[in-house]
Amino acid sequence: MALALALGLSLLSAAFLTVKTGKIAYGDPLDMPVEMVISRRMSVHYGDYYNLTSAVPWDSVSKVLWAAYGYTLRGKTAPTLSDYPIIIYLCNETAAYKFIPENRSLILWKQGDYRGLSGGYPAPIQLYIAFDTHLCQDAHWGNAESGCAIQNIYLMANTLNLGTVCEGGLWLDRTSINEGLSLPSNEEALYKMPLGYTLPPYTNYQNLVPTIRPSSSELPEIQDTAMTLEDALDSVFSSHEWSQNPLTKQELSQVLWASYGYSYLEDTASSPPKRHRTVPSADSYYPMRIYAANSSGVYQYLPEQHTLTTIITEDRRQSIAQASGNPWASSAPLIIATAWDDTRILTVNTTYIEVGLITQNVYLESAAWGLIADWGKADSNEQAMRQALGLTSQTNLHPASIITVGHPSGNFNLTIASSEGGTTSPLPGTYSYPAGTSVEITAAPSSGYSFDHWLLDGQEMTENPKTLVMNDNHTIEAFFIDNIPPEINLLGQEPSGNVLAYQNVTVTVNVTDSGSGVSNVTLSYTVDNGTSWNILNMTEASQNAYETTIPGHEDGTFVMYKIIASDNIGNQAVNNNNGYYYVYNVIPELQNLTLTLLTLMTLTFAIAAYKRKLLRAPYNSRK
Is 8's pLDDT higher than 70? Predict the structure, then answer.
């Protein structure tokens, strides 16, 4: 459908699609380190395990879409070699929608339920991944670029405790999807992904339990960083500006593990229990081979043992860069090369999706460790690439891509500011950090204020504290708001007891507001049990002390009152004595005199009785 239906859909509001949340308690998946998110990645495709009666909230859907292909301060959440050719369609029970990353919204594409196109696993939401042939003419690389978005969908889905799986391969009827969704002639469907809450035993990924973390003598044990998936996605960008500092063994271990390794969680729902891989593979073929080249040689990464085996003990980076057609890569501290084994593939296209899956994970793990990454094609001259990698005789291997990884070069400035009502840690000012440094900035509100949002390079976000990887200059400002109402304390009522008919009552309260200050204080009283209320302004008699006078009323009147105070922002506080109100009775003056006489009489009788007792007592006892 060349022209989308005129109905624009704002079900995914900009607020939802900004996808920034404040810090939450540890243990919530959104707060997990990116390494744990990668370890939790799994495909949910065993039987009917999607809960069809539990709707996926729109804010969760929006986070998944943003993660897949949304915009960030650095560009998009996924890298590209073809000007971002991937298109995502979302289908629910009522309609199909097209995701528009530019304005973070969905537009209504076609009314009706199209979730069942080409079969697959039933779920509340179905995502269809397509590519624009005008932007990417090579279907292999359309598949590779889709892999970056698909990996992000997997990862964000599991942080939200949603299940998904990438459906494709030989059985997927792409023609029925193209025709069913009325896709434009320049768009081709590639994959289908169900999205929904999972049923036992996969609910909340409770089937995954910790196991031994991958490690070897060559590659240290996998460690978790403090970076969340959202922070890592925000940090995705391509750069050649690396220093000549080599990667440490730990950094090398981390990026290779992320590329094609095994999870450090065990799936107890499988029989026998097993560890999933960091990326999916069509029918679990896993045809890719991962090679690492640095100044000391070329090595093959062995995921099962999480180790390296040596192929060549000389620097081949320049040869690899030239053979791949990416001369810019020759000085990269690390070149990761991918190649696929034609004895283990389902289709070439489903093999190329793994190029994107691997690339995306390397970008994310590089961001978590303060590294920069870039990628390029390497399939134009297979023989030259095999020779550069030391694989000349292995003609079953087909080089596909390279990914460069390094430490960013130089220093970058971080300018921190804060609005009235709080400060930050580090304090406001300009700081210089070496490239790749991870900086945590915390907003600290003053008394009477609360943190509202950051403005980071012109973009609002609410996460606090906020972690930045210094791969560029940044300006960040903390904004605070006074959303705390004044505090009211009753100081006194005069008269404090019963009130005579037509006697005025003076009420004094103490009102403070440490934020924007007190704007006005009123007393509201009722003499008809709340049917109507009378409002009196209270004036400041002394510092923070406000008073007013309730006029006298006839005897028998029952008076209830409460105090209302507002600050200069509009926050309002009410002191109504915890719902019981402040009360007094108006009594007749005669009734008051009678009570006084009774009291005097009682006192007189008591004194007389005491004197008689003294007179009757013996003299000695009165000494």
Answer: no
